[in-house]
Specification:
Largest sheet: 8 strands, mixed
Radius of gyration: 15 Å
């Protein structure tokens, strides 16, 4: 048996466009594996969520804006875009502001700089006691350190 790999998304952004599509742009990490057809985000009422990419890999999305959590509760699906955050993209982003109605600007910027690594749809799954279970998991992880 091998260990499951759980990584913290060091940086991510969640954006809704005018058509009410919700996109999470996260940094690509080779260690988090490829998403399967059951990839999903599980979440509760609080600011934490977990992107489960496949049976062995998950990414923690921490401190999600409360308005985005409310929006997630009303949706069944979202888009995940994974980018490689290279120096060109950092410089480009520092000079731009990405408003809601410019959802694909970051996507286009990443693609133009060969930084786009993956784009896929996931299911959003709200779990009643997720927040308690999440905090219990984190407390257990911290005890082991």
């Amino acid at each position: 048996m091998h260990d499951k790999i759980v990584k913290l998304a060091k940086d991510f952004v969640a954006i809704e466009n005018n058509e009410t599509d919700l996109m999470f742009v996260i940094l690509h990490n080779k260690e988090t594996g490829e998403p399967n057809s059951d990839a999903r985000i599980i979440f509760g009422k609080g600011p934490h969520a977990v992107l489960i990419k496949n049976d062995d890999h998950a990414v923690i999305l921490d401190f999600i804006d409360k308005d985005i959590i409310k929006l997630m509760s009303k949706k069944e699906h979202a888009i995940i875009t994974e980018i490689e955050y290279n120096e060109d993209l950092i410089k480009y982003n520092l000079s731009k502001t990405f408003e809601k109605d410019e959802l694909y600007k970051l996507f286009e910027a990443a693609e133009a700089r060969h930084a786009l690594k993956a784009c896929y749809e996931i299911t959003l799954e709200k779990i009643h006691d997720f927040d308690d279970r999440f905090m219990h998991f984190i407390d257990k992880e911290l005890e082991g350190k």
